[in-house]
Structures are given as C-alpha cells and as structure tokens.
Amino acid sequence: MHGLSLRSLSHISFLVCFRSVLVAIILFLVSNAGFSYDNRYQYLNSGKKIEVPFSYYNGLIQLNVKLNGIPLNFIYDTGAEHSILTNREVAIILDLRIVKEIDVFGADLVKQMTAYITEPLTIELFDTKIIKQKITDEKKIKFVEEVDVRTEEVEYFTKFEPILILERDIFKEDAFSSTISGILGASFFSNMMVEIDYRQQVLTLYPYGVQPKLKGFTELPVNFNGHKPVLNSLLKINQDDDTVSAKLLIDTGCSIPLLLLENIDTKFHLPSKTVNGQIGIGLGGDLTGWIGLTNLMQIEKYTFSNLVTKFQDTDSMSNIKSNTLRDGLIGNEILNRFTLLIDNIDKKVYIKPNRNISQPIKYDKSGLTLFASGKNLDDFYVKHVIPGSPADIAGLKPEDKIIRIQNLSYRFWSLNSIIRLLRSKDNREIRIKVVRPGEKISFRFRLKDMFK
What we know:
By secondary structure, the chain is mainly β. The chain has helices at residues 88-94, 332-335, 390-394, 415-422; strands spanning 4-5, 28-29, 40-43, 50-53, 55-57, 60-67, 70-77, 84-85, 97-105, 112-118, 121-136, 145-161, 164-166, 182-185, 192-197, 202-207, 218-219, 222-225, 228-236, 244-250, 258-261, 274-282, 285-299, 302-312, 328-330, 338-343, 348-353, 368-373, 379-385, 401-405, 408-409, 429-436, 439-446.
C-alpha cells in the first residue's frame, strides 16, 4: 500500500462527515499504527501567543486552513483524535500518497470501514483580512482622500503531519457539505495550550513556555484519552434519581448539549418522558435513539438543569473497548457558556464563565430536523420528523423543501434563525410552506414542549 496515490483510488467515494446539529462523529481507530511521524511545526510569531479568528456557525468552530497551499474550511473537533480530510475532490487534486490502510468504527460503534493514512503534508492556519488605507490625492488637495480596500492573508501556524481519509461518503446531505472540507483533530494542537473564546470567536494558541493568565479560570477534573479531554462530572437524569458520576468527552465537534451511552452500565436510566428520534449519523446511516431531558448536570460549581439529552443504545456493542473510556459527550451548546482552556502539555482543562452562562439552554419544540444546502446554504429541507411531534401531526415529511416560513420567503432566513424560531415559546404558531414533487403545500402547527 505504501506510495499508492489517491488518484489511483479516485473511484472510491470518500467521507463527507460534518458534526452539525444532526451529526456527532466519533471515530475509534482499530489501530493507531501509521500515525507516528516527525511532528514538525512552525509559529509565525515565535515565543508569543497566537490569536486565530474563527467562525462559529450552527454550533461549530470553523477555521481557515491550507493543505499544501490550497485554502479550505475545517471544523476544530476535540472529540476526534486525528485530522480528517473529507473532500474527495481536494484529496485527488493534492495527489496525496497513502502509507497505510486501517479500519475504523463510526459513531454507531458497530459498523466498520476502511480508512487511509497519508504521507505528511503541510497544514496551515490562516485568515483573510480586509485592509483599508487612506490615500491622499496626489495633487495634495486639502481634505480629499480615497480609501484603498484590499485583502491580505495572515498566516498563524504551520504543521507538517499526516491526515486521515475515509473510504466512503456517508453524509451527502449534510448542512455543511458545500463549505467544510475536513476536521482538525485534538492532536493537531499537541505541545501547546489552546484557549477557545466563544464570545469573541478567537482561538488563542500558547506555545510551550508561553503561559496564559489563569485569573477567573477554574480547573476541571479531567483525564485525557490520547489528546481528547474527558470530563468527570455529576448527573441526575430524573428528579428522583441518585446523582451519579459520568465521564464525558469534551467535544467541540458536537453542537448538542449532551449525549449519553445509555446501556454501558446501569447507572443511567432514561428520562421519565422521551421521544424516539434521530440522534446522529453513523457509518451505517442514520442513528436512532431516545431524546429527553436530563434533570441536572454539575461541572464543578456550575449547574445546568433540564438539558436536552440524546441517549444512544449501546447494548449490542458494549464489548467494544473504546466504550469503556467514557459515558457520553458534552458539546458546544454547554461549552459556549465558557472560555475553554485546554492544556495539552500538562493535560489539564480550565473554564471561565462568559455572559452566556445565565442564558437558558433552549431546545426544539417542533419535532423537525432541518438541513441547509446550496452554495450559500440557503436551501432548506426537512431531514427528519419526530413521530407524534407537532410537525408530524401537521403532515410535514422528510425531503420537503421549505419555501416560506411565517409568510416570508426562505431567502429571508438562515438555518440558525429557523432553529431559533422553532425553539421559541410554547403555543407559538408556525406557518411553513413546502414543495413536494408536483405540488406546493402549506402547514400550520403550534410549538409544544414534548419532554414535559
């Protein structure tokens, strides 16, 4: 397999897997062999901290990345150990060479597929800034000035390492399929500290020897599985349940508040009221499970109540070793209430609350799971409808294309604004018009809390 070019494998459909509201990808390598490499990296501003801006869209951290000079968008994902290239066209253009073939498990922890490890390539973090400069008229006429507007690329950090490419495209209809090309895994920032400021949308890198200010931060009780931080927290599912400890993967590649592996042992019981629904997408297709409210979660001195939680049934896969390392994961819906500091050198994690800490964690009351597609991510489709939900009773179906919401054209909406609407107060009337093959249909329903 050594030296095989990706172009010679161009008939293979490579993975497009993005960790949106619908997706929680957790890859477990059957073998880590092949990921040993010369871990070379270069800081543009050596000996000082590096501030890298990011975009926070649909609950995910997006970074500007260059692979061997080609600019792309990647998601920063502390729940994945290694970096993953998910864009087949880019893989072929780069003509990356394969050094090893391995097997991986997906989020369902059952389905297995082939993955390829490439030779090391150059991965750069960069940003494009708009530069405005005032230019005085050449004739020196007083008060006459023009503005020169141009863009300038700023490079922050460069690393030389392999990347993982999966064999098969399993998320063709994901919301980010036209904009995101891969995942930066937790190991990308080894040998440094990473501070995630969700409010300012800035990633601050602290190279070895550069110390951040820890005033206002609280150290969390964590263990590291490789480079992935696992939090020791306290949970109470139902109000009358005992409080139990839980090991939760800190996962910036997941936008939901909480996901629990329901049948690893008997410590977790399902909430008293649940609905069956889609909890993610795995190698075998859509993952189904239960959705309900967790009564309480405590992270040191911070307490969260009535958290929408997805429960994955793990009865049939409890013999997989990777399962024993954690009880579930905690995603950005909770993490974005803090500034998060991950110390990959001393294996520690710190948090500092921001203004979001007092904001209630809202959840969907329609029963709809939506995705966006198109060049500008402004074509909206129904992905899944929870049985018995307000949207289901009204008659909405998967693959419906939304053309009007609240009597406004879909062009006036973004996916985020639709999600906010569907999380608003009980009994609010929702008006949606959709297109199905050969017909246009209008629906009305009222939002309802399905978990109380």
